[in-house]
Amino acid sequence: MGFGFNLFFMFILLPALVVLLLLWITTGKKIFGKTIIYSLIGITTLIIFSTIIQGLTSNIQLDKEDYHGTYIVDRSFFPGVQADWQYNSYRFEIDENDSIFFYCTDGRQILKKCKGVVSTTSPNGSARLILNMEPPVHHIAPVHHIVSSNPTTYRSAWSFYLVFNSPKFNIVYFRKGEWEPLKK
Q1: Residue 106 falls in which region: left (phi positive, over 0), alpha (psi -120 to 50) or beta
Q2: Residue of 11, 16, 129, 145 with fewest CB within 10 Å of its CB?
Q3: What is the DSSP letter of 169?
């Protein structure tokens, strides 16, 4: 529970329960005993309910291993032709060795593969992804524009997604998942 509940418990509820207990012992009236029991049942119910709600609504805490897997463009944010094209053109995977492989594709066919290594930092308790992409062969072109900077991780109670800031596309959303051909 929070700081306010602790203050309420220590300075209001606990003294009130002690007073009710003393009244019950000295007078022997059942109403004081029932009040104590109902108060304890109500507080226990409140604590259990609050714990369940907090567990269902708090953001998940990510570890480095949570990032391992394959990622596809999440088309649900901006559905349409552009999102479908991005979905068929880009995906990546992070393996257990912390290697990242970014693929430029044409559907199933991989046209270009960019390699790198990932690491994480945990400034607020949850791991954030850091990309260290290898420069392209012969240094003719820069690293692919989608993975030229670190993604932002957005978390919910159940999952997370990565948002890359691309100079050409603005933002591109990726979610864990397996690539499958789009149904027309």
Answers
A1: beta
A2: 11
A3: T
Q: pTM value?
A: 0.75
Q: Which of 31, 38, 39, 34 is nearest to 15 (CA)?
A: 39
Retrieve residue 122's tokens: 């945990």
| High-pLDDT (> 90) share of the chain, % | 66
Chain segment 89-131, per-residue pLDDT in tens: 999 999 999 999 999 999 999 999 999 999 999 988 899 999 9
Amino acid identity, position 71: Y
Q: Give the residue ranges of DSSP H helices in the chain.
A: 3-8, 14-27, 30-57, 81-89
Residue 156 corresponds to which amino acid? S
In the structure encoding, which two tokens stand for residue 129, read together? 């992804």
Sheet with 90-94, side-by-side order of all strands: 128-133, 109-121, 99-106, 90-94, 69-73, 170-176, 160-166, 152-155
Tokens found for residue 20: 């009710």
Tokens 């003719």 label which residue? 140
